[in-house]
């Protein structure tokens, strides 16, 4: 019988343990977890702090007892693995309660130690009395009891990633005045700026004080004052530091396992490290970006779970290759949901892949059925082949479904030309006969097939500066609510009769509200011998950043 040892008992580790047992009733499986809890719901922690999840027990998906019994596992909590001897195939384990260190042998070793919050040496950080990071149940207990007992009125969240925004909402839910300080010019790095900007506006609408493009320089007065690089001073009663995570790689490093540039444990497609008896999974590893093929790190629960199962299969000779991570993710930010899959423009630029973009703004379901809300959906693709590189969506409803459909399309190797042909479920409360994903497919197909050409929101200023021609085809009442200053207003229904007002020797840049009428207008202009381009996503995409 084999002896399989697992380091880390939460997302990846416990998934691997359960699958190993289901594949083999006989092997010895030992799972080490340095904390008290195994298999807890990391992703639920912010909602327990905020009060949406009422019972602490609900976070404990499995306990040491329940999981040991169900899967016949030797689970040892409060047990930190502190060393690996690869030659002898042994590990050193420290009982963190008694300090005792002992050895344990293994035939196969799985590392799933996760990633821990980055805590930089910001001046004053050690004196800050109410400064927290959030990763596990003890962190959660600390934050919750501080809020319950001290009733803080103000909070500063440092870092506007998924955890930062979820916490900002939940602290606001607890009645606090919340400030987010984010070094970059946008929150949620996996998005591009025009998608993130919708969230910026919403955060401000909700009364969150959002500071972008500015980092924390120091904490003063025991952490009751946050000083930013730009000299802002924010009084606060608590601080949540959520500026990212770094892989727990010390064990792997000491054992001379290969690490990537950013410290992730390197594995092959079977999740094996450079030692064939040591596997690694989850937040601690470097994986291949599914879209562009480059090494990257994506600390999310789906990859950890998928890899946990695959690693068990591989140990039992059922070869399952892990094909890479697309980074499909979603978050609730107050009344909005925001989701993304695949690569964004920033990543594609960095790795040197040419791409085209479309923005559409369809309704979440039929407009005549109550409760429909707009979806801002962006798809990034290859202009020649239609290959889908990524998508982003923001709105109040139906966001998860659209991004999941596109994520499935990417995995299935579909192109934007296939999206119009997806037959998706429709009745008025759910969608439209042309689903937003179909709409995105039509818009992208028009570009691949050369039926229309577009300009992007960020190109307009330069077009204006060069004296380009802009035509706004909305109705005057819409134009009155906000428009590109230099655009001449010719409502779409008057366009055919006013063609003589436009030059034939220059490109006419058309805009409407969301891009649909603009598309019709460019078609009319092209058919009449004009050169025309449509502002992709219309005024709605343009105005959110400008
Ligand atoms: P973990 O689940 O972190 O487990 C690693 C465990 O290993 C830890 O318990 C640690 O104590 C233990 N360990 C480390 N070193 C040792 C050692 N030497 N010896 C013994 N034990 C050790 N992802 C999503 O996809 N969606 C979400 O909504 C989402 N929300 C999140 C919210 C929060 C607050 C947090 C913290 C994370 C969230 N995540 C979310 C990320 C997700 O939880 C992780 O990607 C996932 O848990 C990674 O699994 P893992 O097994 O690699 O690491």
Question: What is the topology?
Answer:
Layout: E1 3-7, H1 11-23, E2 28-32, H2 45-50, H3 64-71, E3 74-76, E4 79-85, E5 90-95, E6 101-105, E7 108-111, E8 115-117, E9 131-132, H4 137-150, E10 154-158, H5 162-173, E11 177-182, H6 193-205, E12 209-212, E13 216-220, E14 225-228, E15 233-235, E16 238-241, E17 245-247, H7 250-254, E18 265-266, E19 278-280, E20 285-288, E21 295-296, H8 301-315, E22 329-333, E23 336-342, H9 345-351, E24 356-360, E25 375-381, E26 388-395, H10 399-411, H11 436-448, E27 454-455, H12 460-465, E28 469-472, H13 476-480, E29 488-489, H14 492-495, E30 507-511, H15 516-527, E31 531-535, H16 538-545
Parallel strand pairs: 1-2, 1-7, 2-3, 7-19, 9-16, 10-11, 10-16, 11-12, 18-20, 27-31, 28-29, 28-30, 30-31
Antiparallel strand pairs: 4-5, 5-6, 8-17, 13-14, 14-15, 20-21, 22-23, 23-26, 24-25, 25-26
Helix pairs in contact: 1-8, 6-16
Bound molecules: flavin-adenine dinucleotide.
Explain this structure.
There is one protein chain. By secondary structure, the chain is of the alpha/beta class. The protein is 28% helix and 25% strand. It contains 16 helices and 31 strands. The strands form eight sheets. Strands 3-2-1-7-19 form a five-stranded parallel β-sheet. Strands 9-16-10-11-12 form a five-stranded parallel β-sheet, with helices on one face. Strand 1, helix 1 and strand 2 form a beta-alpha-beta unit. Helix 6 packs across helix 16. The longest helix is centred in the middle third of the chain and has 15 residues. The protein is globular, with a radius of gyration of 26 Å. The relative contact order is 0.09. The model has no long low-confidence stretch (mean pLDDT 97). The site of flavin-adenine dinucleotide has 34 residues, from helix 1, helix 2, strand 4 and helix 8. Its cofactor is FAD. This is CoA-disulfide reductase. InterPro entries: CoA_disulphide_reductase, FAD-bd_OxRdtase, FAD/NAD-bd_sf, FAD/NAD-binding_dom, FAD/NAD-linked_Rdtase_dimer_sf, Pyr_nucl-diS_OxRdtase_dimer, Rhodanese-like_dom, Rhodanese-like_dom_sf. It comes from Ornithinibacillus halophilus. Pfam families: Pyr_redox_2, Pyr_redox_dim, Rhodanese.
């Amino acid at each position: 019988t084999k002896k399989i040892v697992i380091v880390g008992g939460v997302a990846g580790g416990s998934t691997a343990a359960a699958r190993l047992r289901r594949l083999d009733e006989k092997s010895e499986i030992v799972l080490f977890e340095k904390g008290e809890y195994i298999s807890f719901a990391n992703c639920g922690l912010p909602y327990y702090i905020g009060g949406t999840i009422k019972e602490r027990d609900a976070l404990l998906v499995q306990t040491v007892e329940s999981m040991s019994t169900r899967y016949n596992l030797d689970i040892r909590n409060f047990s930190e693995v502190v060393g690996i001897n690869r030659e002898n195939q042994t590990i050193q384990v420290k009982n963190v309660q008694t300090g005792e260190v002992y050895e344990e042998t293994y035939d196969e070793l799985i590392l799933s130690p996760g990633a821990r919050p980055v805590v930089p040496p910001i001046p004053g950080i050690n004196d800050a009395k109410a400064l927290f990071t959030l990763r596990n149940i003890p962190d959660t207990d600390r934050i919750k009891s501080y809020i319950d007992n001290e009733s803080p009125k103000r909070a500063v969240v440092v870092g506007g990633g998924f955890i930062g925004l979820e916490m900002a909402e939940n602290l606001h839910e607890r009645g606090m005045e919340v400030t987010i300080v984010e070094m970059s010019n946008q929150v949620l790095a996996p998005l591009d700026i025009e998608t993130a900007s919708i969230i910026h506006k919403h955060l401000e609408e909700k009364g969150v004080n959002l500071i972008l493009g500015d980092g924390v320089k120091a904490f003063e007065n025991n952490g009751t004052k946050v000083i930013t690089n730009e000299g802002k001073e924010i009084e606060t009663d608590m601080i949540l530091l959520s500026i990212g995570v770094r892989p727990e790689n010390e064990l792997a490093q000491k054992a001379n396992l290969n690490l990537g540039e950013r410290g992730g444990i390197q594995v092959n497609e079977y999740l094996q490290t450079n030692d064939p008896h040591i596997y690694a999974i989850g937040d601690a590893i470097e994986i291949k970006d599914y879209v562009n093929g480059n090494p990257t790190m994506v600390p999310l629960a789906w990859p950890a779970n998928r890899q946990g199962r695959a690693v068990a299969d591989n140990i039992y000779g059922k070869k399952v290759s892990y094909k890479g991570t697309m980074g499909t993710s979603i978050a609730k930010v107050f009344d909005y949901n925001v989701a993304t899959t695949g690569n964004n423009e920033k990543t594609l630029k960095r790795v040197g892949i040419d791409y085209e973009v479309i923005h559409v703004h369809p309704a979440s379901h039929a407009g005549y059925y109550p409760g429909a809300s707009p979806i801002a959906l962006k798809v990034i693709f290859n202009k020649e082949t239609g290959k889908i590189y990524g998508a982003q969506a923001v709105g109040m409803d139906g966001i998860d479904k659209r991004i999941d459909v596109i994520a499935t399309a990417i995995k299935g190797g579909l192109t934007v030309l296939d999206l119009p042909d997806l037959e998706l479920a429709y009745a008025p409360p759910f969608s439209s006969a042309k689903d937003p994903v179909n709409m995105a497919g039509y818009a992208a197909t028009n570009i691949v097939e050369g039926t229309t050409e577009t300009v992007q929101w960020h190109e307009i200023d330069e077009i204006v500066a060069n004296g380009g021609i802009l035509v706004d085809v909305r109705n005057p009442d819409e134009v009155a609510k906000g428009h590109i200053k230099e655009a001449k207003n010719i409502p779409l229904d008057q366009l055919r009769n006013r063609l003589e007002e436009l030059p034939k020797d220059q490109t006419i840049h058309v805009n409407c509200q969301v891009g649909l009428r603009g598309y019709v207008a460019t078609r009319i202009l092209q058919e009449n011998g004009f050169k025309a381009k449509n502002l992709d996503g219309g005024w709605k995409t343009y105005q959110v950043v400008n």
